[in-house]
Amino acid sequence: MNVRTRFAPSPTGDVHIGNIRAAIFNWLYARHTGGAFLLRVEDTDRARSTDEACRRLLEVMEWLGLTPDEEPLYQSTRQSAHLEAAEQLLQNGHAYRADKGDTGQGEAVLFRMPGRDFSFHDDVKGDLRKAAADMKDFVIARANGTPVFHLANVVDDIAMGVTHVVRGDDHVENTFRHLALYEALGAAPPRFAHLPMIVNAQGKPYSKRDGDAFVGEFREKGYLPDALFNYLALLGWSPGDDREVMSRDELVAAFTLERVQASAAQVDLRKLEWMNGEYMRALPEAEREALYRDALERAGLWSGAFSEEYFRDVCALMQERVKLAPLFPEQAGFFFTEDFAFDEKAVRKRLLKEGGLDALRQMRDALGAIDSFTPETTEAALRQRAETLGLGAGALVHPVRVAVSGLPGGPGLFEMLAVLGKERVLARIDRALSRFADPVTEG
Ligand code: GLU
User: Ligand 1 pocket: which of 171, 175, 178 to mutate (most atoms <8 Å of CB)?
Assistant: First the structure.
């Protein structure tokens, strides 16, 4: 069998990560089986599915590399096919007209449930069954002549030759009705796989209130498409071993529906950030540097006053620590301006407390006395001075760090000093001393 999967979103503008995850699973399954991945835009709600919403959907899919194998089908262009199907069902007795709810608009077309139980094997959830008594007749075309979701969805899946419907498990209940429709339309039903909901830490459906929830938001925050793709692929699925960072090829090779978990999948934004850090580090150096440079430019910190070499040294030093390129200015901005901000807490704890400024004076002296500024020489100078003073190295390390970077943490101090260079380091220590030694005279 040639597998044909489809992603069938109702575009509303922003694409929720739960929805795009369905696209990812469909894409992976099609690739894994050598089948086709299709896109059907369920844009029948013209109030919400604007051209803009459709454009955003396609953009997000392209950004994630979820290219459909055939031209997208727009459901709004299919109304006559849907209504023809309704007509066919009317003619062979599977549907009837009735005035639903006295709308005064005329009669709707209702599908007649056959009055027996329906069951199917869900590739994720196993065998599912629904009793006849729990399934009522339902509207397939409204009194105003527009087809209803159930009819349009099934008619289009038949027309597209879809073999596997992989979608959110909020559609499980619909599936029983859809099976009745397939049968009445004389079509073999596809296989179904219903994906677990994605939830927050409390087990509630993951929403905007829990943090970023839309693909566009992650894109703006600087997440790399491959990292987001990889993270979402693991949301409700696992390769069965402990691999987490997986290339697209590895994901394709490992992806099966059997390994999709049935229970809800919890979103963990910290893990996503970690994942992005892994992908950032794996980028070719030039690409990573371009992202950092772009972030510096946006932050107004790219001045051309620095050599290419200096910039690259900073990038090399920071790459282990920066998980998202847009955070580069926050974490490494002090390398590129003398006007960097001081973290107040760090100043209080490391400079203004007993001995902080004295330690800084000692280090001004010790560092001023060495000529070559390498991680080794600056470290030796610090350790020697600490020993002379009978202090632990930390008593000197922290004040220097705060004085030259304004931050409580960051890359290794000695590497940082070597990259900044002697002149900059001494000037910064001097400025910190005059600024914090006598704060009263400040501004
Ligand atoms: N438009 C529906 C949705 O977004 C389609 C569900 C489906 O059959 O995949 O939920």
Answer: 171
- Distance from the alpha carbon of residue 10 to the mean position of ligand 1, in angstroms: 7
Among residues 204, 208, 345, 353, which one is catalytic? Answer: 208
CATH level 3 topology of 4-71+198-270? Rossmann fold (3.40.50)
pLDDT tens-digit profile of 92-145? 999 999 997 766 778 999 999 999 999 999 999 999 999 999 999 999 999 999
- Say yes or no: do domains 4-71+198-270 and 283-335 share a fold: no
Q: Whose CA is nearest to atom 3 of ligand 1?
A: 9
CB burial of residue 242 (10 Å; 0-12, 13-18, 19+)? exposed
CATH top-level class for 283-335? mainly alpha
109, β-bridge pairs? 97, 141
Determine whether domain 75-195 maps to CATH 3.40.50.620: yes
Q: Cβ distance 196 to 261 under 8 Å?
A: yes
Helix (H, G, I), strand (E, B) or coil at 226: helix
Among 275, 287, 211, residue whose Cα is nearest residue 17: 211
SS3 283: coil
Identity of the residue numbered 434: S
Architecture of the domain defined by 344-442 = Orthogonal Bundle (1.10)
What pTM value is reported for the model? 0.92
> Which value, to the nearest 10 degrees, does the dihedral of the CA atoms of residues 418, 424, 425, 427 take?
170
| Sequence-ordered list of residues with C-beta below 8 angstroms from that of 243, at least 6 positions apart, any chain | 250, 254
Cα 359 to middle of ligand 1, angstroms: 65
Give 209-235 pLDDT, tens digit per residue: 999 999 999 999 999 999 999 999 999
Q: Where are the beta strands (DSSP E) in 80-133?
A: 95-98, 108-111, 118-122, 126-130
Domain range list for the chain: 4-71+198-270, 75-195, 283-335, 344-442
Asked if 221 is an active-site residue, the reply is: no
Q: How far is the CA of 245 from the centre of ligand 1 (A)?
A: 29
Ligand 1: residues with CB < 6 A are: 8-10, 42, 153, 165, 167, 171
